[in-house]
Amino acid sequence: MPRLTFVRSSARDSTSIASNPARLLNLYPEPVGEEGRTTALLRPVYGMTEIGQIDGVFIRDMIEDGGFLYAISPSGLFRATLTSVVRLGDTAAGQTANLSRNLGAVTGCIGGAYFHWDIPTSTLSSPATGPIDDGVAWVEYLAGRTIIGEIGSGTFAWSEIADATTFPGLNFAVAEAREDATIRGFVIGNNLYLFGEKTTEIWGPAGSGANAFGPLGVVIERGLKSFGLVCAADDAIFVVGSDDIAYLMAGNEAIPVSTPAVTSAIRDGEPQSCTFWDERGHKFCAITFSDRPAWVLDLATKVWFERAEGPLALPWRCRKAAKLGDWVVAGDDGGLYALRESQLDAGEPLYREATSLPLENDFQWFTVAELEIMTGAGFETGSIALSFGDGIVFGLPQQLPLGGVGVFDQRSIYKALGRHRLFVARLSMTGPLVPIYADCRVRLA
C-alpha cells in the first residue's frame, strides 16, 4: 500500500513551485527511529508571547548580560526582563546597529556613533573612538578589549584592557589581504572574523598594546551579503554570504548549508537578519525576510522549514533572539516576545501547515480512495483540515476531528478524494499542539 510523505524539509522554490511543492510551515520534523510507527513526527514551533514593548519600532539588536536583556533601537537603549522594560537613554538613530559587552559595561553602535553603558554607575556616554574617524560600523569584544570597526573601510581599533572608554591612537590595524571594505566584524571563540564585501579575513590575539591582534593568514573567498545576516550558532557562525548562499563557519571552514529553495529566497527576496535559538533540544538558525516567511535550519537534522505568522504566511517579525530563562525574540514592531509552547502566536492562533511530496503513477490516472492522517491523537481534543490538488491549485479544506482526550484509536480518514495524475495533500491546524506523523497511509481504488 503506497504512503504519502509530508515532507521532511521544505523544498518549495519560489522560482518553480510546481517542481516540488513540498513545504513545512511552523512545523519541523523530529526523527523517531526505524522502529516507530512513522519515520518522523512533525512538531509545532513555539508561539510568541508578548512580554514587553519598546518605544518606537525596529529593534536593531539585543543581547543578554547579567540577567537582563539589552536592546537597541533608533529611539534609544533599553533594558528588559521577562516582566518589565526600562529605557536607559538616548542614542543615535540609524539603519544598522549592534551590541556587545566589556566586563561591567554594555557597548554598542548605531548610526555611526559609539556608546557605552556603565552598569555599576548606570551611566550612558559616548566616548571618543581614537583612530576611528569616519564613524563606527560595528562593535565586538575579544581578549579583554572592545574592538570597533570604521564605516566603509577595513580599519578597526581596540580599547585598553577592561576599559571600553579608552582607545589609544596606535591601537588599530587594517584588514588588507584584499581590497574590499569590511562590512562587519564578528567574534567566535578566540577568532575575529572580518566580513568584507567579497572576502573574509580571520584575526586573533597576538600580543599587547598596538600589537594586540594580528592576522592568522586565513582568507575565505566569500564575504557577507549585508550587515544583519550573521549570528552566533553555539561555537560556529551562521552567515549569508555575498554569493547568496547560507554557510556555517568554524575555524577557517565555510560549509554551505543552503538548499536551492533557500538560495532562491535569499536571491529574490529581502533578507533582513539571522538569529539563533533552541526548542525541545533542537537548535535553530533562521534567515528572516521582510517580504516572505523566514527560512529556518535545524542544526540537529540539517532540515529546513519555514516560520511565518497567520494563515496568510506573513513574514515572521523576529529580528534577533537572546536567552533569559526563555528565549526572547525582538520584533521589528518594537515588541519583545518569549518563545513558549503555546497555541497562540503574538495573540493569534498558531497556524501550522504541511504540504506533501507529490504522489504519481508514471503520469497515469489513478483514484485515491482513502487517505489516513496519523497523529498523536488522544492527548487533546481538536481537528485537522486537509485539502488536495496538484501542488499549485488546492481545493477547499475538509475538516476532520482528531478525537477527544483518551481516544487513542481515533483514525482520521478522508475518503473518495477523486482521480488524479499528480496528487498533493496539504494539511493545516490552528488548534491543539498535536504532533503529526510525517507518513500517511493511502489506498488507491
Structure notes:
A hairpin with a 2-residue loop joins strand 24 and strand 25 (253-256). This protein has 2 domains: 3-45 and 353-444, Sandwich (Jelly Rolls); 47-348, YVTN repeat-like/Quinoprotein amine dehydrogenase (Methylamine Dehydrogenase, Chain H), CATH 2.130.10.10. Strands 2, 36, 37, 39, 40 and 43 form a 6-stranded antiparallel sheet that branches. Strands 1, 38, 41, 42 and 45 form a 5-stranded antiparallel sheet that branches. Strands 26-27-28-29-30 form a 5-stranded antiparallel sheet, covered by helices on one side. The mean pLDDT is 92. The protein is elongated. It has 1 helix and 45 strands. With 445 residues, the protein is an all-beta fold. The chain starts with a strand and ends with a strand.
Features:
mainly beta; Jelly Rolls; Methylamine Dehydrogenase, Chain H; 2 domains; six-stranded antiparallel beta sheet; five-stranded antiparallel beta sheet; 1 helix
Count of helical regions: 1
**Beta-strand residue percentage:** over 45%
The class by helix and strand makeup works out as mainly beta
The whole-number mean of residue pLDDT values reads 92
Low-confidence stretches: none
Please give the share of residues in helix.
Answer: under 10%
Reported for the largest beta sheet, the result is:
6 strands, antiparallel
Which value, in Å, is the CA radius of gyration? 25 Å
Spatial separation of the terminal alpha carbons: 11 Å
- General shape: elongated
How many E strands?
A: 45
CATH domain topology of the largest domain:
Methylamine Dehydrogenase, Chain H
Query: Tell me, what is the CATH class of the largest domain?
Result: Mainly Beta
CATH superfamily of the largest domain: YVTN repeat-like/Quinoprotein amine dehydrogenase
- Going by CATH, the architecture of the largest domain would be 7 Propeller
Number of domains: 2
